[in-house]
Design goal:
There is one protein chain. This protein has 184 residues and is mainly alpha-helical. α5 packs antiparallel against α6 and α5 packs parallel to α7. The longest helix has 18 residues. It has 10 helices and no strands.
Length: 184
C-alpha cells in the first residue's frame, strides 16, 4: 500500500467515518468513479464495502466487491472477502467455494493472505460438511510456510475446533494440533 492509501484513510477517519453509513455510502459512490489513483480507489472500495455491511446491505456489498474485482482482478484479498460475504452473510457456501478457489490461486501466486484464503475454504468445507475437503485444507494450512513479515492472518482454530474429529484423518488432526501448538 502507498502513502496515498494512508492519507485517504486519515482524511476519511477525520471527515466521514463517524457519519451515518448511509451518508458515507452516498459520498463514496459519488466519488469512486472520479478517482484514478489506484490505492485511493482501493480505499474507497474498502470503506464502501464495510459501510454497506454495517447496515446489512449485503447485495450492495456484493456489488461493491464485484466492482473492486473488476477494477483489480489480481487481488487475492478481494476474492477472499467476497467469499466471506457469500458464506457468512448471504448463506451461499457453493458460490463462496467458487470464489475462494480464485482467491487461493491468487494468494499462492502473490504470497499474500494464503492462510486467510485457506481458512475461509476450511469454513466453507465445514459448512458443506465436506470432510474430504476439510482434511485437504487443514493439511495445506499446516504445511504452509510463511516468510517473515508476510501479509496474512494468524493461526486459526475455530473451524478445527468445530469439526467432528472422527471424520478427519487422525494424521491430519495430529498435524494440525502440532501446528496450532506452535503459535503459543
Amino acid at each position: 500500500m502507498t502513502e496515498k492509501f494512508f492519507q485517504f484513510e486519515k482524511w476519511y477517519a477525520k471527515n466521514l467515518a463517524l457519519r451515518p453509513a448511509g451518508e458515507r455510502i452516498i459520498w463514496l459512490e459519488s466519488e469512486i468513479d472520479k478517482i484514478e489513483e489506484f490505492w485511493t480507489k482501493k480505499c474507497i472500495f474498502l470503506n464502501l464495502y464495510t459501510s454497506n455491511l454495517e447496515i446489512a446491505q449485503f447485495e450492495r456489498a456484493l456489488d461493491v466487491k464485484e466492482r473492486e474485482i473488476q477494477f483489480d482482478p489480481n487481488d487475492a484479498l478481494a476474492f477472499t472477502t467476497k467469499a466471506e460475504l457469500l458464506l457468512y452473510f448471504m448463506d451461499q457456501p457453493e458460490e463462496a467455494l467458487e470464489t475462494i478457489e480464485r482467491g487461493i490461486s491468487l494468494s499462492i501466486e502473490t504470497k499474500r493472505f494464503r492462510r486467510h484464503a485457506l481458512a475461509v475454504k476450511a469454513r466453507i468445507a465445514l459448512r458443506l460438511e465436506n470432510y474430504t475437503m476439510l482434511n485437504e485444507v487443514l493439511d495445506s494450512i499446516s504445511e504452509l510456510k510463511l516468510e517473515k513479515g508476510a501479509e496474512d492472518v494468524g493461526r486459526e482454530a475455530d473451524f478445527f475446533d468445530k469439526a467432528d474429529k472422527s471424520k478427519l484423518s487422525p494424521e491430519v488432526v495430529s498435524k494440525y494440533e502440532v501446528y496450532l501448538a506452535e503459535r503459543r
